Amino acid sequence: MKIKIIGRVISKKNSKRIVTNRYSGKRMVLSSKAYERFKEDALTQLLTVKEKFKGKVHIDYIFNIKGKMRIDLDNAIASINDILQDAGIIEDDNLIVSIEAKKIQGCTEWTTYLKISEVLEVFD
Question: Which pTM value belongs to this model?
């Protein structure tokens, strides 16, 4: 299955904010507003995806990066994996058993292409 997500991938790991609960006074660590916007937009784009994977999967990632900006590939993959799980496309990101990833800089827009395929176990 092939998926296209339009928009700049925001790292979930490096984009945090600390807020204080008005009522209890306790501090909480939340994802940044930028990540939350990206996640909401990506989930909206993924609403049309009907295929769901319940077992082990392989994912190919291609990150098209606008201009000369730089991103950390590992953090971008982690953000996309969490969104795929939240969208119900993959059951659990622990079931991703292999990946292939590439980033292409100097593009005219931010686009992420994914190819997800089920992994069938073969025993000798």
Answer: 0.86
Indicate the domain borders of the chain. 2-118
What is the CATH code for 2-118?
Answer: 3.30.1330.70
Q: What is the pLDDT along the chain (124 residues), one digit of tens a residue?
A: 999 999 999 988 776 778 888 899 899 887 788 899 999 999 999 999 999 999 999 999 999 999 998 899 999 999 999 999 999 999 999 999 999 999 999 999 999 999 999 998 765 5
Q: What are phi and psi of 64, to 5 degrees?
A: -90, 120
Instruction: Assess contact for 3 and 117: CB atoms under 8 A.
Output: no
